């Protein structure tokens, strides 16, 4: 089963990623100024995953990626995939496990390595 992982960016804004069962990041969200905004977006996505749209793209270097849209709003962008089949497997994992995925909050861990 996948998981939503909340963390902080270097600019102190919050983001979340969806990781696969194997621990690979499937997509990364946009930035949120407040943590509760991030949590609300995850909840909205979990409740409405079946109505989410996945806009597929191919980059200039031949990699595939998607943008996750919910009710016309861009929520997240996927990692780059080498084939369209792998891209589709990433989307399938979100659809299958997104509504039941747990939420992990690592935003309080500012310093992983001590000086």
Order of helices and strands: EEEHEEEHE
Low-confidence stretches at least 5 residues in length (pLDDT < 50)?
none
Mean pLDDT, all residues: 91
Distance between the termini: 35 Å
Report on the architecture of this protein.
With 115 residues, the protein is an alpha+beta fold. The protein has a single domain, classed as PH-domain like (Roll), CATH 2.30.29.80. Helix content is 23%, strand content 35%. The chain has helices spanning 35-47, 84-97, and strands spanning 3-8, 14-19, 25-29, 53-58, 64-70, 73-78, 102-105. A hairpin with a 5-residue loop joins strand 1 and strand 2 (14-19).
The gist of it:
This protein has helices spanning 35-47, 84-97; strands at residues 3-8, 14-19, 25-29, 53-58, 64-70, 73-78, 102-105.
Keywords:
single chain, PH-domain like, 23% helix, globular, UPF0339_domain, DUF1508 domain-containing protein, YegP-like_sf
Element layout with pairings:
Blueprint: E1 3-8, E2 14-19, E3 25-29, H1 35-47, E4 53-58, E5 64-70, E6 73-78, H2 84-97, E7 102-105
